[in-house]
């Protein structure tokens, strides 16, 4: 088997590069304002619930998500790009990145925060005994009731029409907001969970983030060992690679047809696509 010069490792059987369409030139994701921050720290407003402290660093970006890392815990968080707003001026002491929605961290994913309506109990009114009536009857005063003019009747009719129109507008607005929230939640839940993984994830951290796989397969190619964690219900498989001097780490994700969905980038600028195209994984 041919070897890669200077490494002593077997040369990959073939190298496949995937772009926006298979076989075409790769297209980089659209830039975001966070890419101009460099290594500067920033905070989100409003803050993301259940993630403390509110201090972050920009990591990388994909077509649909932006990856940030918490400066204290080192936790990587994937935020859908549709929730990112404007960025404050760079010359300010603290850089603030606005969010279009109030978000929270729940079950290992970022979702819009839903405010629950709390129903207050009905106030209990003490039953006080009615005051005793006086034995003397109140004097009767003759009051002459004037007939209401017809104009007042039409006035109340107009008020009723206006109030009805306002009520219809409010109900329509609430229904539209509810549909928008359901659509946003569906898009967030449908995002690709394997994008949470990085080159630092081993078998244990992968299981912690994605859950246990349905099938685990192992393959050998020279001095490398590949471990494939299959998730048939999600239609993809996560691949870990190890060597004699290194334990198994995440290198990428394949779909059910063996096409590369994600490949980690190594410090020298190369990617793991050459290893994911190994005949051992086919």
How would you portray this structure in words?
The chain has 282 residues and is α+β, with helices and mostly antiparallel strands. The protein contains 3 helices and 13 strands. The protein has helices spanning 150-189, 203-210, 273-276; strands spanning 42-45, 56-61, 65-70, 76-80, 84-87, 95-99, 103-106, 109-112, 215-221, 224-231, 236-243, 246-255, 260-263. The strands form 4 sheets. A 5-stranded antiparallel β-sheet has the order 9-10-11-12-13. Strands 1-6-5 form a 3-stranded mixed β-sheet, with no helix packed on it. It has a 3-stranded antiparallel β-sheet with strand order 2-3-4, with no helix packed on it. A hairpin with a 2-residue loop joins strand 11 and strand 12. It is elongated and about 110 Å long. It starts with 41 loop residues before the first strand and ends in a 6-residue tail after the last helix. Residues 9-25 have low confidence and may be disordered.
**Overall pLDDT, averaged?**
77
Shape: elongated
Structural class: alpha+beta
Tally of strands: 13
Share in helix: 10-25%
Spatial arrangement of strands, main beta sheet: 9-10-11-12-13
Amount of beta strand = 25-35%
Helices and strands, in order, run as EEEEEEEEHHEEEEEH
Low-confidence stretches: 9-25
The radius of gyration computed from the alpha-carbon positions, rounded to a whole number of angstroms, is 32 Å
> Count the helices. How many?
3
Major sheet attributes:
5 strands, antiparallel
What is the distance, rounded to the nearest whole angstrom, between the alpha carbons of the first and last residues? 18 Å
